[in-house]
Amino acid sequence: MSRKFNSTQVTSTADAEKIQPDRKQLIQALSAYTEPDHRKALYQIANTFIPYLGVWALMIYTVVQGFAVWVTLLLSIVAAAFLVRLFVLFHDCCHGAFLPWRFANRLFGYISGVLTFTAFEDWQKTHITHHANSGDLDQRGVGDVWTLTVAEYLAAPWSKRLAYRIFRNPLILFSITPLILFLVVHRFPSVGAKKREKLSIHFTNMGIAALVLIMSVTLGFQNYLLMQVPVLFFAASAGMWLFYVQHQYEDVYWQRSDNWDLTRSGLEGSSYYKLPAVLQWIGGNIGMHHIHHVRANIPNYNLQRCHNEIPVLQAVTPLTLKGSFKSLWLNLWDEDRQKLVSFRSIKGLPRS
Questions:
Q1: Is 153 a member of any domain?
Q2: Tens of pLDDT along 278-289?
Q3: Rounded CA gap, 135 and 140, in Å?
């Protein structure tokens, strides 16, 4: 059963649109959905992990039997979809929200971390920092997408403006950048990493090295690359897109620290990315990011029910699949207009 607010009684979406929810009451209402369910979690592991391994088995078969390369590549797209879903389960483990037991979350987090090329403890640290600072203009730089304000861009030297334009180019941001992130950046500890985070990096790297060695000895290194690189490329690119549109859309919330509000940063600074049913399943309900940023320890399998039962969450305007593509051309935060704008929109403005 969902819990209702006390002083600001919300009984419909129309009511929700008229109020600014009290954080204490909202958190209390959301607490009804935070309890992990081991049966649902194990079912998700089964319907994600097993098919992922099954598609890998099919890819191996196509390579060994000498099928055309395009057959293996088509299968790699399917494998990538399951890998994206596996990363969402990994993500829930990082919040301690997937399984009821801390050790089980860490264990599955480490195992899935090897398969997703991401160290559990180190990524957990940077991701929690992202949650704590999301939407705060004065706390950018950890676990987020590089974003400059219009004023910062205009005041920057030409070299920084060029680097920023290259980075924000969709062809770079959703192809080369994700591969560099998962293959290179994730192999090293993050800035400020402590002993525990560093050990998780070493463990994950050893696990990946063992996986590469076993696959190379049994199938050949080139054959392994033929399978692993496309899977990682498609999954990383899709994952980068999901993360991008969760925090990079026209009316997203950004404020300086003095005016920053944690609840608004969740409800307004994280999108409700309303996807078709199949894509929502692949993404493990991660599109309901506005809920996740208000209460991060709600398991992915409870997010839809939470959204359906709490009207104030339904008041958030959804970002549709079609509408999300507009975000590709929104590159700078305009503090005066309080929205993301394109490079073209500031053309002709004087440099600072």
A1: no
A2: 999 999 999 999
A3: 8
SS3 22: coil
Give the number of domains in the chain: 1
Is 305 strand, coil or helix?
helix
Whether pLDDT at 9 is above 50: no
Residue 347 lies in a domain: no
Tokens for 81, please give them. Answer: 């979809």
**Owner of token pair 């950890």:** 142
* CA 173/CA 325 separation, integer angstroms: 14
Within a domain: residue 122?
yes
Beta strand pairing call for 332-334 and 339-341: antiparallel
| Residue in the structure block whose two tokens are 């797209």 | 77
Q: CA 349: distance to chain centroid? A: 34
**Side-chain half-sphere of 176: how many Cα atoms within 13 Å?**
7
Determine whether 51 is exposed, middle or buried from the number of CB atoms within 10 Å of its CB (0-12, 13-18, 19+): middle
Per-residue pLDDT, 12: 39
What one-letter code names the amino acid at 283? G
Locus of tokens 């309901």: 288
Query: Does pTM top 0.85 for this prediction?
Result: yes
Q: Is residue 70 part of a domain?
A: yes
- The dihedral over CA atoms of 311, 317, 320, 323, expressed in degrees to the nearest 10, equals 180
> Which residue range is the domain that position 118 belongs to?
13-143+192-235+246-321
Q: Could you tell me the CA-to-CA distances from 338 to 221, 252, 254, 332 in Å, in that order?
A: 50, 8, 8, 11
